[in-house]
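Fresh eyes needed here. Have a critical look at this protein's tokenised backbone.
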Amino acid sequence: MIFLIATQNVHKKIEFERILSPLGIDIKTASDLGLTLTDVEETGTTFEENALLKAREGCRESGLPVLADDSGLCVDALDGAPGIYSARFSGEHGEHGDDEANNRKLMELMKDVPDDQRTARYVCAVAAVFPDGRELIVRGECEGRIGHEERGTGGFGYDPLFLYGSEGTLTYAEVPAAVKDETSHRSVALHKMAALLKEELY
């Protein structure tokens, strides 16, 4: 069964495929299918609302079941920021900033925060919307801390600053990809979604 994924991010597609393909789900991007989807404005106030906005619009435009996710980093010392604004944290006027600029801003804001107050979590909401109106939504989280410096060359986004686990010493940019895939917020959410889809489809 074909599911359209509302992203062109190759890394996300691979992770979606790894977890959902055993269910007989064939993950396709819009470009795979020769489609052009509207770039949905993320006006929701939660990760769940934004994931549903993208999935609903993709389903409406394609007529296919659609999967979409919205994710970000929530830092306790910053009252949950950058949160749903993670991708555009450093951007002016709500524009998307780049990873390096986002990480620089985070380090600047956290420079005087002591170790015991640097707790944070990655959050991911995954939505599935079907042409018949059914909607599923799940959330995955991964706990960690914010480091004092960027380390590692793997991953993307805030991974060079995110120390995995409450006592972790390695950033998500330093751990093997397989470890990140099994423990990440997106992986947790996708495994939850896989369980729901197994019930819905079979």
Summary: The chain has one domain: 2-201. The mean pLDDT is 92. The radius of gyration is 17 Å. The CA atoms of residues 130 and 198 lie 14 Å apart.
